């Protein structure tokens, strides 16, 4: 029995389709969690939208924060601490 081309499985295409489906599910879950948090907080629509749109962002780790002193003070008019 000869196999036709439709019986051959393209594993690379299958793997890329699976990866896309997994990423889509992660995005849906992340955005849904952000929506639920926003509803619990009782925010207005613009804040709700911002929370959902930035749901992919993660807080910086302690090791990622710069240890160097700031070059520009927050308020250049205020007197310095030195």
TrEMBL record:
Residues 9-75 form the Dynein attachment factor N-terminal domain. InterPro entries: CC103, Dynein_attach_N. This is Dynein attachment factor N-terminal domain-containing protein.
């Amino acid at each position: 029995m000869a196999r036709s081309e439709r019986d051959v499985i393209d594993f690379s295409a299958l793997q890329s389709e699976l990866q896309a489906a997994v990423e889509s599910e992660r995005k849906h879950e992340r955005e849904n969690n952000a929506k639920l948090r926003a509803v619990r907080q009782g925010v207005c629509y613009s804040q709700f939208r911002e929370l959902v749109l930035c749901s992919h962002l993660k807080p910086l780790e302690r090791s990622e924060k710069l240890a160097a002193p700031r070059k520009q003070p927050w308020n250049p008019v205020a007197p310095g601490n030195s």
